[in-house]
Design brief:
The complex is a heterodimer of chains A (378) and B (396). Chain A has 3 domains: 109 residues, Acyl-CoA dehydrogenase/oxidase, N-terminal domain (Butyryl-Coa Dehydrogenase, subunit A, domain 1); 104 residues, Butyryl-CoA Dehydrogenase, subunit A, domain 2; 150 residues, Butyryl-CoA Dehydrogenase, subunit A, domain 3 (Up-down Bundle), CATH 1.20.140.10. Chain A contains 11 helices and 9 strands. In chain B, the strands form 3 sheets. In chain B, strands 1-4-5-8 form a 4-stranded mixed sheet. A 4-stranded antiparallel sheet of chain B has the order 2-3-7-6, with no helix packed on it. In chain B, strands 9-10 form a two-stranded antiparallel sheet. Chain B is globular, with a radius of gyration of 22 Å. Classes of the chains: A alpha+beta (378), B alpha+beta (396). Chains A and B meet through helix 7, helix 8, helix 9 and helix 11 of A and helix 8, helix 9, helix 10 and helix 12 of B.
């Protein structure tokens, strides 16, 4: 048992922190998210050059062969800086799906380009009416001569506006809730039959609702047996989100702590009041509990399915509850200033809310955890 | 980073498991399952079995008769003991006063007391709280007046756990009434057989006898029984409380209670389904199980930092806060799971032929819930723990 980062991982953390400190201050972020694209293509190229895009992609295909811990190191730093570049969509989800579900040729074609920052991916899975169940998929994939034709509607596809390729979760066989008969399909974002409605999300990122009408697609690996791959990648993605949330909560805790030490009311710093002190302690306890389970989800990300899923579900519950609580208390303790768009605090709170929503709220994962934990003990 | 146990850890785990399985008397495990308050002999029996194996003081360095186990080994040991329902280790000697003696004691004190703690020849109790000094411990008024080579101690201690079993008490006394509250305190080791000591039981809300009042009336204590310097007792007392906070999280005990909670919830039926299938109850169980998992890994992180030589800092208070809250949640859920059979409060005496009321697993559960209300009060109340973190960690 060992909770230390290796020397290489520490170097990675240092290089991320150094760059973000210089290039990604809150004011830089604010400019970026107000731009058309919502992030910086130049930054994306820097991420590629620094090796951050390829750090967890397979070595055979232009990556550095790192694992979940390297991804966690990145996630925590990106979370602390609110990084808006589509690392999560393109690398964690997109790259993760290609690496696990794609055939050799597809991996060789796509992964090196991903690592070099030459293409970006987005994962279209959510449908209205399915809430968070990944197996409830109405979007259809029909076999054609050359490949498949996709028809259906996907909602809130994160980072779709800037993506080159979409990975679409669609059904080739079976009824709506079947876990069999699901495939992943590569669709060119500019292909005929793809109609996107782009918008900004509450955390200042970009997303789209997408209609597919006989859009031409090719299957990423097996067109009928993608579901276990999706679950594996989503659990890893949850570990990423958990670490991102820890980074965000850490900043909120530090920022709020500094504020209560300087803000004066009744002739003294508000941090002199015990009610504020205890609130700050409870924020710290939430943060450290979240850190522990983010770590657990990371270190179980490559474990057998039930173990992996249980750790991911536990982490999702913790960061959902803690993220909301820490975010809301940070706003509360900043008083009126916490309500302003000008201050960073509200932006972290909004991102933490979106992290709780991603792949299902705390309640959803608590039920998932109960099912897994109670099956294990029976 | 990894969570795997090393081969050596696994071998150690097997060794502990084998030992506990073959040495723990089944009737002792059974009594521990059913009773919040064991007889003195039950604790002593288990401690001596461990001590014979060389494991009498898992947290001590080898030079004083300890095990030199690293934190992972201590974690494994706690887990295996909890899974087997072994009685808890009595903390007053090995976890509390022992480390104070080997860290601050004289050679004579070490030579005399440490072996007697290991063999449990001496049962220790903690003379800290007083009727007017609970959370504000430094306001304590029990006074020790110098009389040649002795002190004459007069005062009133309260909430003294297992004082009725105790041979010795480590006791905070005021040796200087003029100094600032924290600076006039000394740390004495008092023989409970000294004339002038009276122990009076306090019956707690679980109708058990665990805590006591201790009256000291002109008790003569040799100055040779003082730890360290006169007036520096507060330093040793804080050292002791800091050590206590890492063991007070009770992760392994809570894990075992959670397993038992699920067994009960699986067995309790309503309308053809088990309580564990009831969505509202299942959610509550899952919520606390996740909280416990977070505590377990926070505890491991703190222990790992300790191994890396960073020492246990005041953030250990966090473990006490979460550990006690979780113990209370689990013991409360157990009572909820029992439904009406949480109500009977009469138990067949030991050796009785009378069948117990309700299911076997209902025995002692309400007592456990009631007694565990103390976890957020003792060892520095959770409010005090939050004050400590605010001051020492957050700089507020």
């Amino acid at each position: 048992m060992d909770f230390q980062l290796s020397d290489e991982q520490k170097l990675l953390a240092d290089s991320l922190e150094g760059w973000l400190r210089k290039q990604y201050a809150f004011e830089d972020w604010r400019k970026l998210v107000r731009s058309e694209l919502g992030y910086s293509q130049a930054n994306w190229q820097t991420f590629a050059e620094m090796g951050w895009l390829g750090v967890a992609l397979p070595e055979d295909h232009g990556g550095l062969g790192g694992g979940p811990v390297e991804t966690m190191v990145i996630a925590e730093r990106f979370g602390a800086a609110l990084v808006a570049e589509p690392y999560f969509s393109s690398i964690v989800l997109g790259g993760g799906l290609v690496a696990i579900a794609g055939d050799q040729a597809q991996q060789a074609e796509i992964l090196p380009k991903l690592a070099e920052g030459r293409i970006k991916l987005a994962f279209a899975f959510a449908e209205h009416g399915s809430r968070f169940a990944l197996n409830e998929v109405a979007t259809k994939a029909t076999k054609t001569g050359a490949g498949y034709a996709i028809s259906g509607k996907k909602i809130v596809v994160w980072d779709a506006p800037g993506a080159d390729l979409l990975i679409v979760l669609a059904r080739t066989a079976g009824g709506s809730g079947d876990e069999n008969g699901l495939g992943l399909f590569l669709v060119d974002n500019k292909a005929a039959g793809v109609t996107r409605r782009d918008y900004r999300t509450v955390d200042a990122r970009r997303a789209a609702d997408i209609s597919f009408e006989n859009a031409s697609a090719i299957a990423l690996g097996d067109a009928e047996a993608a579901f276990p791959h999706v679950m594996a990648v989503v659990d890893k993605a949850i570990a990423y989100l958990a670490a991102e949330a820890v980074g965000a909560m850490q900043v909120l805790h530090e920022t709020t702590l500094a504020y209560v030490k300087t803000r004066k009311q009744f002739g003294r710093a508000i941090g002199d009041f015990q009610v504020i002190q205890h609130r700050m302690v409870d924020m710290m306890i939430h943060l450290e509990s979240a850190r522990s389970l983010a770590l657990l989800a990371t270190l179980k990300a490559d474990a057998p399915a039930p173990e992996r899923a249980k750790a991911a579900a536990a982490a999702k519950v913790q960061i959902g509850k803690s993220g909301r609580w820490v975010g809301q208390q940070a706003v509360q303790l900043h008083g009126g200033m916490g309500m302003t768009d000008e201050l960073n605090v509200g932006h972290y709170m909004k991102r933490l809310m979106m992290i709780d929503t991603a792949f299902g709220h705390a309640d959803y994962h608590q039920r998932r955890f109960a099912a897994l934990a109670n099956a294990e003990a029976a | 980073m990894n969570l795997e146990l090393s081969d050596a850890d696994r071998a150690f785990q097997a060794e502990v498991r084998d030992f506990v399985r073959s040495s723990l008397p089944p009737e002792l495990a059974e009594r521990n399952r059913r009773h919040m308050h064991l007889a003195k002999q039950d604790y002593v029996t288990w401690h001596r079995l461990l001590n014979k194996r060389g494991w009498g003081a898992p947290n001590w360095p080898k030079e004083f008769g300890g095990t030199d186990w690293n934190p992972v080994q201590r974690y494994i040991f706690d887990e295996e003991c909890a899974i087997a329902d072994a009685p808890p280790l009595v903390p007053f000697g090995i976890s509390m006063v022992g480390p104070v003696i080997y860290t601050f004691g004289t050679p004579a004190q070490k030579a005399h007391y440490l072996p007697r703690i290991l063999s449990m020849e001496d049962w220790w109790c903690q003379g800290y709280s007083e009727p007017g000094s609970g959370s504000d411990l430094a306001s304590l008024r029990t006074r020790a007046e110098s009389d040649g080579d002795d002190y004459i101690v007069t005062g009133h201690k309260i909430w003294t756990t297992q004082a009725h079993f105790a041979d010795m008490m480590f006791c905070l006394v005021r040796t200087d009434a003029q100094a600032k509250p924290q600076e006039g305190i000394s740390f004495l080791l008092i023989d409970m057989k000294t004339p002038g000591i009276t122990v009076r039981p306090i019956i707690s809300i679980d109708e058990g006898h665990g805590v006591n009042e201790v009256f000291l009336d002109g008790v003569r204590v040799p100055k040779a029984n003082r730890i360290g310097q006169e007036g520096k007792g507060w330093t040793y007392a804080k050292f002791l409380l800091g050590n206590e906070r890492t063991t007070i999280a009770e992760v392994s005990t809570s894990k075992q209670r959670l397993r038992r909670l699920k067994t009960i919830a699986r067995a309790e039926m309503a309308q053809g389904a088990s309580l564990l299938e009831d969505p509202a109850f299942r959610d509550k169980v899952a919520a606390v199980e996740i909280e416990l998992l977070a505590l377990e890994y926070t505890n491991l992180r703190v222990l790992a930092a300790e191994t890396a030589g960073k020492g246990v800092g005041p953030e250990a208070s966090m473990l006490k806060i979460r550990g006690s809250e979780i113990q209370q949640t689990i013991t409360e859920l157990v009572c909820e799971a029992l439904g009406y059979y949480a109500a009977p409060f009469e138990h067949a005496p030991e050796g009785s032929n009378l069948a117990p009321l309700g299911p076997d697993y209902a025995q002692g559960r309400m007592e456990s819930f009631l007694y565990n209300r103390a976890t957020t009060i003792y060892g520095g109340s959770n409010e005090i723990q939050r004050n400590i973190i605010a001051k020492m960690v957050l700089g507020l």
